[in-house]
Every structure is written in C-alpha cells, then in structure tokens.
Amino acid sequence: MKGVRLVSGSPTYPAAGRESDPQRPGQLDGATMRHISMDDDEYPIVRALSSEGELDPSLDPGLSLEEVVHLYRHLVLTRTLDQRLVLLQRQGRIGFHVGSLGEEAAIIGSTYAVRETDWIFPCYREFGSALLRGLSLQKFMDNMFGNANDTVKGRQMPDHYTCREKCWGSISSPVGTQITQAVGFAWGAKIDGADTATLVYFGDGATSTPDFHSGMNLAAVFKVPTLFFCRNNGWAISVPAEKQTASRTFAEKARAYGMPGVRVDGNDLFAVIAVTRRARERAARGEGPTLIEALTYRMGGHSTSDDPDRYREHAELTPWAQQDPLQRVRNYLEKRGAWRASDEAAWVAEIEAQFKRAVATSESTPPPDLGSMFDDVYATLPWHLLEQRVQLFEGPRAPKLH
Amino acid sequence: MKGVRLVSGSPTYPAAGRESDPQRPGQLDGATMRHISMDDDEYPIVRALSSEGELDPSLDPGLSLEEVVHLYRHLVLTRTLDQRLVLLQRQGRIGFHVGSLGEEAAIIGSTYAVRETDWIFPCYREFGSALLRGLSLQKFMDNMFGNANDTVKGRQMPDHYTCREKCWGSISSPVGTQITQAVGFAWGAKIDGADTATLVYFGDGATSTPDFHSGMNLAAVFKVPTLFFCRNNGWAISVPAEKQTASRTFAEKARAYGMPGVRVDGNDLFAVIAVTRRARERAARGEGPTLIEALTYRMGGHSTSDDPDRYREHAELTPWAQQDPLQRVRNYLEKRGAWRASDEAAWVAEIEAQFKRAVATSESTPPPDLGSMFDDVYATLPWHLLEQRVQLFEGPRAPKLH
Amino acid sequence: MAQMNMVQAINDALRVAMKRDRRVVLLGEDVGKVGGVFRVTAGLADEFGCERVIDTPLTENGIVGAAIGMALYGLVPVPEIQFADFFWPAYEQVVNELSKYRYRSGGEYTAGMVIRTPVGGGIRGGHYHSQHPETQFVCLPGLKVVCPASAYDAKGLLLSALEDPDPVIFFEPKRIYRAARGEVPEGDYKVPIGSAQVIRPGRDVTILVYGAMVYEALDAAAKAHRQGVECEIIDLRTIWPVDIETITESVKKTGRVVVVHEAPRTLGFGAELITLLTERAFYYLQAPPVRVTGFDTPFPYTLEAEYMPLSHRILPAVLDVAKAS
Amino acid sequence: MAQMNMVQAINDALRVAMKRDRRVVLLGEDVGKVGGVFRVTAGLADEFGCERVIDTPLTENGIVGAAIGMALYGLVPVPEIQFADFFWPAYEQVVNELSKYRYRSGGEYTAGMVIRTPVGGGIRGGHYHSQHPETQFVCLPGLKVVCPASAYDAKGLLLSALEDPDPVIFFEPKRIYRAARGEVPEGDYKVPIGSAQVIRPGRDVTILVYGAMVYEALDAAAKAHRQGVECEIIDLRTIWPVDIETITESVKKTGRVVVVHEAPRTLGFGAELITLLTERAFYYLQAPPVRVTGFDTPFPYTLEAEYMPLSHRILPAVLDVAKAS
Ligand SMILES: Cc1ncc(C[n+]2csc(CCOP(=O)(O)OP(=O)(O)O)c2C)c(N)n1
Ligand SMILES: Cc1ncc(C[n+]2csc(CCOP(=O)(O)OP(=O)(O)O)c2C)c(N)n1
Ligand SMILES: [Mg+2]
Ligand SMILES: [Mg+2]
C-alpha cells in the first residue's frame, strides 16, 4: 500500500529545536497552517482522497459505495448533532457540550476500520464513534440531560456516557487516563488468548500526560494490540500543538517506544480507514501497537465553555474549511453519482426530526432517583452509605441550583 | 569533533519491535552483552579512550595530565569508598548503601564537564560527584550514620545527603522526581537571565517515569539548559534495560521531544567529558537541552539490600570488567608515565585511613537532638508541632529498635 | 476601595505581587494567552510577558515539578492546576518532594510557592470538575492550605501566601468566583495565614465552615435565628494549620458544633476538627458534634444540589444540635 | 496446619488463587524473576509463567492504569506497588478512575482488583520507605482498605479481597512481614472484609489498632494489666469500611478509647474513628479519646523509634485515659 509507512528512517531529519532550523510553516494543498508542521520527510502525511474527491487507488481501502454512503450519513449525523447540541446549550437546556466539528472523518473512519469486537477507549469528543457502533440517539440524549435513563445515571457531565454492549468504553474527563487502560484491556485479551485489539482516542495535548508515556511504553514492551489514535486537532484548549511539544510531529514520538508511527490526513476518511486497518493487521500478526497521528483541526471551541476568539485568528480556519472532511466524501460520492443535494437535505431533516423527538423525550424524563446517588459506589451498600442514604431521605429536599 | 553526533538521522534504522528484526545482541570490543543493544547505526556509541588507554585525538577533551590524575584519584576514591561502605553495612554499622561500582567514570566525568556554578540534580548513586564538587568525606560519612552532624539531620536513609554550598542538590528516593525539578531550576535561571545549566542524573529505569517524560518535554519546548544524563547501567533493580523499553537505545527517546540525543561509552572518562561539554556548549548557545545516554554497567547489586545473583548470571559481568573505567584511565596514565602502582597503593592507603577516621568520628557523634525532629517541617513551628514536641519531651524515651 | 469579585481580587493580588517582585512567575495550562479558563490570570501575560506567565503543555506533574525547581533557584512560582480534580498527576511531587523539601534537605533547600486551584461543586461540573480535596493536602506535614470565601480575603490571603516561606495550597471556591463580590483595597495588604474569622457571633451553636459553603452557613444561621437559635459562624479561611484558639474558644462558649464541608464525610476535614475539639473541649461539649458534608460517593451531576451540604441541610443539623442534650 | 510468616502466607494466598483461577495475574516492578524485593511473590513466575507474573517497567501509573484495563477485560489483576511511598504516580488512576469506575459508568464497568503494597516504619527506611498512607485511600469513596496483622489474617483477607467485586487496597505491614508467624491453614479460607477482631478483651479502655502496631498495643496492654488497667484491643483488620458495630460496642462498654496508628496525627485514620465514636457513643464516653500516632512531620530515619507510636507511648496514654474523668 503506497504511502502508508509504518516504518521510520530518513537521512534528512534535521536536529529539532535548532535556532538555525525554525519550525517550517506547514503546507497542505497550498494553504499555510501555522499551528501544525504539516510535512516531514520522514513522516509524510498519508492521504488517499484529494479535495476534489479523487481516490488514490493504491490507498483505496476497498469500500463499497453502500459503505461510503453509510459512513457519509454518519458524518452528516455527527455534524448535525454537534450543531444542534451547541444551540441547545446556548438555550440553557443542557449544561455543556464538547464537540467534534471538523474531526468527524478521523473519528468515524478509525472506528469503522477496526472490528466490532475490538474495544473503543474514548477520549470525550467521539460521540460519532459511539453512534456508529450503535449507541442510540435517545440514550446519547439522555446523557446530555443526565436524566433517569442516562447510561451513567446522571452522575457525569454531558458527553460522558458509556456503551458496554457495543464494546465501547466509559468516558471520564481527566486527560490521558484512558490510554493505559486501553493497553491493559488489550493486554488482558492477549493473556487470555483472544484476538481483541483496543483503539484508544486522545488529543495532541494528551501526549504530554504520564499515561501517554506509560501506555506507549508498556504496549511496545509487551507487544500489546493497542492502536493509539491521536487526534491532532491543533489545540489543547488554548495551547497550540506547536507549544505542546518541540518534536515536529506527534507520530515520531512512537519511535521513543520502539513502535511504528504514522501520520495520516485526518480529514480524509479513506486514508484514516486504510491506515487504521493496516495497524489493526499488524496487531493481529502479534506485532503489537501502532501510533497513528491524525492531522485535523478543531473547528469549534474546546467546548461550549470556551471562546476560541480569545486566542486564535478566525482566518486560521479557512484552509481547514477547504479541507472539510464531509465535503471531500461528498465530492467522491458526487463523482460517482451517489450523492444528491435533495437526499442530503432529506437526511438532515430526518436527523433533525429524530433529534427533536429525542430531546423532547430526554427533557421530559425525570432526573435519576434520589437513592441512585448511593448505588454503584460499591457492589453493595456498606453501613455508612446505608446510613447516609437514610439521612438524605429523611432530610429536606434541595433547592434548585441552576 | 568527530563521532559526537547530537543529531539523529539515518536511512537504515529498522522498524522497532518487528518480529523479523529481533533485538541484535550488542557488541563492545567483541564481548556479547545481553542486556543492552550496544550499537545502532543512528546512535553510535561515542568512544574516545580504547581499552588499552589510547585516546582518539578527535575526541580529546584536552585535559592536562594533572587534571587526569586528579580525576583518576577521584575514581579511585569513589571505588574504594564504595567497597568500604558495603563492608560497613555487612557489619551492621550502617543501615544501607547504594553504590556506583562500575559507573564511576560516567559520574565523575559528567560532573567534571560542567561548570562549578551549574547545579547538579542527583539520583542516589552519585556520591562521587558530590565528593568531586567538594562535599567533605566527614559530612558524607555523617550522613551514612544519620548523626547530629548529618547535612540532612539524620532524617533520611544513608546516601541521601545534600550539599547546597557546592551547587549540589538534595537526594530523595522516588525515582525520576529530580528530573522535572532540574528543568525548573535551569528554567528559573534562564528567566532570571543567568547562564546556569543543570545536570540531572537518572537511571535507565527512570526513563519510564512520568517525570522523565514531562521534564524532557518541558525542557525542549522552552529550550531550557538542562543536561539529561541517563546512566544506563543495564538494570533497574532486577529488570533489565531491554525490558524497560522496546526502543533500541535510550538516546533516541530524545527525538520524541525534539531534542538531540547521544550515546556515550559511560566507562570512558574522556568521551563522557567530551560529550557532556558539547551539550553544555549547546545549552550556553541557548539551544536548549540534550539527552545523554551513558552506557555502563551496575557491577554490584542494586543496593546492599539486593542480591543480584537471584536474577543475573555472574558471567555477564566479565565483558564489563574488561571495560573497567578505572583501568582504562590507568592505562592512559601509565602510557604517559604518570601512574605507578606504588602511588596508587599510597592513595588507597590514605583514603582508607581517612575513611577510618571519618567513620570513627561519625560513629561516635551522637544522634540528632530529639527536638530536631520537628524543625524544618515549616519555617517556624506551628501550634500543633509545638504541642507535639512538648508531648514527645514529656513522654518516655523509646526503646532501641535495631 | 474598588468593588471586585473573587476572580478580579485574585487577579489583582497577582498583579500587585508581580509588579513588586520579578521573582513571581505564573505557570499552568491556559494561564497565559487566554488568561485561564476562569480568566483569573487575564491580562497578566500581556502585562508581564509570556516568560513570566507561562502557558505549559498538559502536564500537571511537570508543572509542579518544574515549579519546585524554579523555587529552588529562587523564584516564587505560582503554578495553577486548572481544576483541583486534575491535581493527581502532580501529587507525587507534592507528597514526596514539595511538602518534605526543607525537612529532608536538613533545611538547605526550600520550595516556597503558591499552588492555585479552583475547587468545589455547584457549577454543574459532575465528579471531575467539582471535588474539594483538602484532605489529601492537610494530611501532608509541611503544607499550608488556604481557602478564602470573600474577595477581600482572597486577595489578602494570596498576598500573604506569596510571601510565606512554606508551600501554600490555595483553593479557590469556583462557585463563588463571581458571586463573592465586595470592597477590596488597592495595592498591598495581608490577611494572615492561620487566622480564622468569626463572621457571625452567636451563643448557641458554632458552625465551622470555609469556602463557598460560608454563604450556605450564613443563610442557615439567618433561618435558625428566626427559630431562636443563635449561630456563631467561623470562616476558617486557613484550613491548615487551623486557627485552633478561635475555634476552641467558640466551642467552649457554645458547647455545640456543626462542621460543614463539601468533601465526602469520611476523613473529610470535619473529622480532624471534631477530633481536635473533642481532645481539647470535651468537657464543654453539650452534644455530639455534627458533620454536614458531601456524601461518601463521587460527586454527582444531576443531583449535585442534593449532594452538597447546602443551607437546607445545615439548618436542621443546627437545630438538632441546639436541642440535643 | 503449617507455620508461616506473613510473607509466606501472602505468597500462599496468591498461589491458591492463581491455581484456581487463571484470571488472576500479578504485575509490578521486580515481582517476577526475583520474586519481589520482599520476596512475597517468590516462585510464582516459575510456577505460573511470566505472562501471569509480570515484571513491568518502572511506571506506577502504568501498572495501575493497565491493571484497570485488565480488570475491565475480565481478569483479576493484582498490581504490586513496591513501597506505599511510591504509590503517588498512580494516584490519579486511583482517585479519578479506579475508585469511581462502577459509579461513573452507571454500573456498566467494574474494576475489581487488589493492589498490594508494603507499608509502615521501623525498618530503618527513612521517610521514603516507611509511610503508612491509609488516609489517602480511606477518603476515596469506592475503595476498600485492608491491613492484616497476622499471617492467618493476611492470607484469609487476601483470599477475600481477590473475590471482592470492589477494588481493595491491601496494605502489608512490612515491619512484621517475617515476625508475624503463626498457624496458617492450607488451601482456601476467608477472613471477611469489614470485620474487626477483639484480640484481647478488657473492660477499662478500648484500643483501636491495626497492622504492625497491634503488637505494640498488646505489649502496652500487658503492662497496663500489671497496673490494674484492662485493655480491650480491637485489631481492625479492615480499615475501611471499618467494623462499626464491633468498635462502637466496645467503646460503649469501656467509655474510654485510645487509637493507635503510624501515620501522622492530623487527618490520620484516628480522626475518623474518634469522630465516628463521638457521633454514636458520645454519651458513653467518660474521657476524651486519645490518639497515639506518628507526629506531624515526615517520617525520620535516625529517630524513627521516637517517632512511632510504640508501646512506650501507648502505655501512658492508656493509663491516662483510664484515670481521666
Ligand atoms: C489531567 C487533566 N488536566 C487538565 C484537564 C483540563 N483539560 C480538559 S481538555 C484539555 C485539553 C486537551 O487537549 P487535547 O488532548 O489536545 O484534546 P482535544 O480537547 O483537543 O480533543 C484540558 C487541559 C483535564 N481534563 N485533565
Ligand atoms: C517511583 C518509584 N518507584 C519504585 C521505586 C523503587 N526503586 C528504587 S530504585 C529502582 C530502580 C531504578 O532503576 P534505574 O532508574 O535504572 O536506576 P539505577 O538504580 O539502576 O541507578 C526502583 C524500582 C522508587 N524508588 N521510586
Ligand atoms: Mg487537541
Ligand atoms: Mg539502571
């Protein structure tokens, strides 16, 4: 498969951090992007689909047109929901949302590339992955409202659901902690003799955490079948990727652990699938983990609590908008006569209708039972929680805070 | 300076961790060494002094003969004390010792290579460095006995002294924690406009800790003048370096942080000095940190509490004994007519006499004052420590525990 | 005097200190360009430059470890941990290094610094943006732990902390970041570390409280008053070392005590307070002391109002303890 | 029944569990080939292979993080932290992940495991090899915390812990690793988690204690007996959730209580015990409860015997509290 290099090695790699070698401005189809070193001789960006929707045959993951349409619908679903959820938050109906605007292809493509029995260890921006796996929109929305039907029983913030039945993990907020867990899970499978891999999502910022370091190291030493999927979206809240590390790419960090690393155009659904599949095959051969750096861009704020205009120029978004991951798949489909504006309008209308229904249901579902607050801390309630539960029930109910 | 490559880059670097590419057994002057990948095309081992005492002129750090004699005496001092301290521990007179047998040149050479105003952040095996800087033997011994004159007032285990007046840090046991601190110190100096670097020691095992990862990353991002000196002595207690990481070298980990890395023969005093000076010059030019991997071997147990026969073949020591760091400098001096057996015997006799006197003094020095237990927790004693101090004084004295 | 909220007061304290003392540097995630996710450090990078107001990579252990190194060099670092919930990667540096540095180096090295971090619930943060973990810091000899409840105290305590030779953990109750507004003097002034404040005198029941819950205690006390029970509210301000004289004196007077904190009950700071008072005012106690705290569960999202020790739970506790004999 | 010391008893428990249940895997630094720095896992790598007895790189956060993943998969991991003093790099995984996993995933995921770690002083370990940090674990809802004082209990509690659905922190008092010898049954048996044991009945003073200090309490009680004071000693065995009935009952009987622990006094477990007893046996207490603990300083090296709450400090406390009224 041309261009997918899981192997590193080049004589031209310059000394990093040299005064004489300033960070080169990145180039992608002519657009200058300040925050990300876009090309590197040793870690070229794997790309399959051009902006115009042309597919490099040597990188074709061999999807049927039905599959592409299916995935495209999920891209549209993800984007539409993202936009709707931001509005919902602005209306004060949900407390928070952390979206994936611009990163849809990286998420949908990678999840699609692994097997359904492989386990996903999410960061917090991958609701598209969960929906693709089969989390119902209703369940997702119940979590956004933290109601009695929420998979996590209203205990966590919005966007912190779980979906075990689809081999999909449990979201927590601390950055990086899922990484070592994903390694342990795949390692457990390996000890058990099962051919199960894990796919773990994290951001560029997460590469600075202890758990990135330890997870990468353990996986490489013990040849654990974990795919490390770094969504390099250019930002960790207000900190640009170029200030997160002095290495020119995130992919090359793999080498410090004796692991192959690869950079892929994260806005290219096909390339993401090709590269992730290749890493999955490697894992299946018992060769262990791979680090995938998906180059993409966080088109929105960090979350609804964030105002990106405080720290970045709006103009920076333009080149990325030109590389829009949905548009590129749409071009591909259009070229093959498989996309019509009216179809898409109908899908979106359907999604919006579904969304509206789901929101209505979630919003009218009561909050979790008072007593549920004490469940699941331990498998069974110890004496002190039994007591506290009684105290809560016997005491007055709380005022509304928000 | 030939051979000192702070820059990486080679087309032949193989994919790490490939089944098809088993860990090649290392070679150093013909001897096979199981635990360490001894050569790597991209990260060759910098070597100045041959086993026979020949010095590669292109790597000559330009030491005068007096300097070499001075350093050799410190190597002998370090080794002699190490041996004596182990005996003292076996006699039950001190509780513990963690030695540097076989690693003397790496320690003495690197400390010598930096400026006296550069700050040393030690791990726990670098008493040779402290003595070279000017910690008195008596003070060192007072720490081994934890008596009233101990620089750390008998509060820590043996080998956990400090020596601020010589710009030498404070030892603690947790692996890796000194690394980020060394970075912060040099960063502070940089903010302050001072040309002060830090030299931080740590082992191969420490490269797996969070603080290695974070310290390397911060130093590279902010171009902090810290020299990261990894004593790769082949072992982290019973865990061999080859199981600590799947990367073929520790030096190449530098690259993940956009920092140059270099491997040096840690048993080669001259090469260690040359490489460390080079890194120091780089820091002085404002180009930031360097990772130095010094290849050496822990000839003793991890500490006096450890029995290495439980996990390693004694035969493994043989090739390393042939690369003895003292012997090599001795050969160098001998070739130049600057070493005589009788001189060395006299030095050792003098060291042993000094040692005996220091031990006698330390052993007869009383333990720290009872009340000192409460000092230095805070700058001044808060009410609760004042109370506890009174309680202690008013209560009965403790029995002897050991 | 200017009216300020707590965010502004803390910002102002940092500005005063940075102007006066070039050794003061701030570091943390998003503290620079954007001025902190709560905007506490807003404008400081512009004013003092990004060498002194440092946006770091995402590395709590690196932030605190590097801050220790800076302090050893002689700077006065003010690391920010974005939420106290994310302190833990740095906890190794706090337990084994920061809190023990002077002790373990025989007094040769000290690492005075102020670690700022927002704490507490009531902001729809779920269990990863609501914790109030004073226990894990109070139990470490060598640290001081502070938690202001007013804009005035926040500035005055921070200015004290910045001159304190010991490391100070500075908890900022984020729920009242903007709600706690009041007169704040310009320039330098200090609120001493280690001194509590009786913010409402009363003869019947002592309420010990700090941070955002101070306002809940005040509300409960006002309601108790209407039922004839007079509460003495002590805002601890410094959690550790606690102002033992002020609290003991009050309890000797009232003989009844309610402790309020957001953290879970078990081994929350209430346990230490009640034990201290039992040890030194046992014969004055007329009723068993009562804890009104978070429950022993992770901090919930939807039910956070039920979880927190708000006024509606403080009031019955106060009335009960007032009656008990 | 065989005579075993605590090291052998723990080793035996691990062997029994690993033989019976292939899901049990051990991981940690030096636990494999060399069998642990205290030789607790000696022989297990040979018997069960290095896939199940795993020598890891030096990464406490990695060890606990990976163990969580293994547990999510369905294994029963038994990570070892070489000394409790080095737990902290893993604390983030414990606070934010392990202790909350079932709760925060709505019951979908659980991470049952037993984290073994040696604790305590009296072995010339200075402050980095002597700490006894139960506070930092008891204060986290979701964990169970165990600390045996005998070989019998060590094996029986460990076998219980390995079948417990909740994560268990298993503290091994290293000072008595070899000194605590006794009869230990072969094969499987359980000592239930959550149940304390009255190891010496007495009417005058209740001593609450666990781990290595149990023997110090016994020594002090023997001496108190000679002075006419009868101690009831309760070995907690499980620190949390503590056996509230057993301790409350005893204190209701004696009305006097001494708590002993090695950790520093402030927010040590003694604070929780005394507060619990004050809350539920206030009117039975005849004297203020007393804490005999480590001092609020880092653990010292040379003066460790003066620092620790050994018999010589327990005895006067017992005699004092017996007299007080
Ligand atoms: C340990 C920790 N520190 C800080 C935070 C606050 N925080 C939440 S997300 C975030 C940035 C993460 O950036 P990145 O890893 O690039 O992921 P992205 O949000 O861009 O997807 C920060 C600092 C946190 N959640 N956890
Ligand atoms: C955080 C931490 N974990 C575990 C230990 C126990 N321990 C002490 S030294 C050591 C091995 C260190 O190996 P390395 O870094 O290679 O240094 P070396 O002893 O070989 O010089 C271990 C595991 C510790 N001190 N700190
Ligand atoms: Mg990002
Ligand atoms: Mg080593």
Mean pLDDT of chain C, as a whole number? 98
How helical, in percent, are the residues of chain C? 25-40%
Name the strands of the widest sheet of chain A in spatial order: 3-11-12-8-7-4
What is the count of distinct domains of chain C?
A: 2
Commentary on this structure:
- The complex is a heterotetramer, with two copies of chain A (402 residues) and two copies of chain C (325 residues).
- By secondary structure, chain A is α/β, with parallel strands linked by helices.
- Chain A has two domains: 5-364, Rossmann fold, CATH 3.40.50; 372-401, no CATH class.
- Chain A is built from twelve helices and twelve strands.
- In chain A, the strands form four sheets. In chain A, strands 3-11-12-8-7-4 form a six-stranded parallel β-sheet, with helices on both faces. A two-stranded antiparallel sheet of chain A has the order 1-2. Chain A has a two-stranded antiparallel ribbon with strand order 5-6.
- In chain A, helix 1 crosses helix 3 and helix 5 (177-192) runs parallel beside helix 6.
- Chain A is globular.
- The model of chain A is unreliable at 1-38 (pLDDT under 50).
- Chain C is an alpha/beta fold and 325 residues long.
- Helices cover 36% and strands 20% of the residues of chain C.
- Chain C contains twelve helices and 14 strands.
- In chain C, the strands form four sheets. Chain C has a five-stranded mixed β-sheet with strand order 9-11-10-13-14, with helices on both faces. A four-stranded mixed β-sheet of chain C has the order 5-7-6-12, covered by helices on one side.
- Chain C is globular and about 60 Å long.
- The chains are: A alpha/beta (402), C alpha/beta (325).
- At the A-C interface, helix 12 of A face helix 11 and helix 12 of C.
- Residues 203-205, 233, 235-236 of chain A line the site of one magnesium ion (MG).
